[in-house]
Design goal:
The structure is a single chain. By secondary structure, this protein is mostly helical. 71% of the residues lie in helices and 0% in strands. It is elongated. The mean pLDDT is 85.
Length: 156
C-alpha cells in the first residue's frame, strides 16, 4: 500500500499537477530546464489532486492497518517499532531503487511529461540526494520509537 501510494503521489504531481514546488528534491540540472507549465488539459490539476489525495489515504490506510493488526495481535512497543521501521526503511529503499535509480536515471518517465529533460544527462543523478536518504534513515528511528512506545502503552 505504501509503495503504491508513493508512486501515485509522484504520478499525480509529475503527470497532472506539474507544479515545480513539488520537485524541490529534484536535481538542480532538472529544475533548471523544467518550465512552469499550465494545465496539460482542462481538469488535469483536479485529476492530479485526486490521485495525490488517494495516495495520502493509502499511506494513512497502511499505517492504520499496521496499528489495527498489531493491536489485534497484542503487539508491544518492540513489535510496533519493528513493524514501523521496516515499513519506512522499505519505503526509503523503494525510493532509492525505483524512483532514483530506475525512474530518474534509466526510464523515460520524467521525459515523457517534460521533454525538455531529454537534453540533460541523467546517468550521474543516482545518489544525488544521498544526504536526504541518510537523514531519513536516521529520523525514522526516533519517530518509530515514539510511535511504538505510545502504541505499546495503549495496547499492552
Amino acid at each position: 500500500m505504501i509503495m503504491l501510494g508513493y508512486f501515485l503521489m509522484l504520478y499525480g504531481a509529475v503527470g497532472f499537477i506539474q507544479n515545480k514546488k513539488f520537485f524541490s528534491s529534484a536535481p538542480k540540472e532538472n529544475l533548471a530546464v523544467i518550465p512552469d507549465k499550465k494545465e496539460r488539459f482542462k481538469g488535469a490539476h483536479i485529476i492530479g489532486w485526486v490521485i495525490v489525495v488517494f495516495a495520502v489515504l493509502l499511506f494513512i490506510g497502511a499505517f492504520a492497518l499496521a496499528i489495527w493488526d498489531g493491536a489485534r495481535n497484542g503487539f508491544g512497543a518492540l513489535k510496533f517499532f519493528a513493524r514501523f521501521i521496516t515499513m519506512l526503511y522499505l519505503m526509503e529503499i523503494y525510493d532509492i531503487l525505483f524512483f532514483d535509480w530506475y525512474l530518474l536515471c534509466r526510464s523515460n518517465f520524467f521525459t515523457h511529461f517534460y521533454p525538455e529533460l531529454k537534453s540533460v544527462d541523467r546517468s550521474h543523478f543516482f545518489g544525488y540526494n544521498k544526504k536526504e536518504h541518510i537523514i531519513h534513515f536516521i529520523i525514522y528511528i526516533p519517530v518509530c520509537a515514539v510511535l511504538a512506545l505510545g502504541l505499546g502503552a495503549i495496547f499492552s
